[in-house]
Amino acid sequence: MTAMLLGDPAQTFQVNAETIIAQQFDPRRYPHRHLVIVGAGSPSWIDQTLRVMAAVEMLTTAGFELVSVAENEQAHLRYAVLRRSVPAA
User: Where does the source fall among the domains of life (predicted)?
Assistant: First the structure.
């Protein structure tokens, strides 16, 4: 999956975990302080959770901090909300 399935991250404030893991998302170009990582594309709860947390880990090196983790069981999605600890360059 790519970020295009969720729309432009700068407009939607969200990006797919797979896009981050595949290094197709550049956090330096993201203009906002908050971002939602969406774990989708796998029916497995644990796979989605692992992918979301791997993406969170990758973005912590870019100045983001984990704020919250949530899930939508009906839609079978896992989310992580992050906040940039330093202003965007």
Answer: Bacteria
Instruction: Kindly state whether residue 17 falls inside one of the protein's structural domains.
Output: yes
Question: What is the tens place of the pLDDT at every residue in 72-87?
Answer: 877 778 999 999 987 6
58, 21 Cβ separation under 8 angstroms: yes
Residue 2 belongs to some domain of the structure: no
Does residue 66 sit within a domain? yes
Most confident of 6-15, 31-40, 68-77: 31-40
Which pTM was predicted?
A: 0.83
Q: Is residue 72 part of a domain?
A: yes
Q: What is the tally of helices (H) and strands (E) in the chain?
A: 3, 4
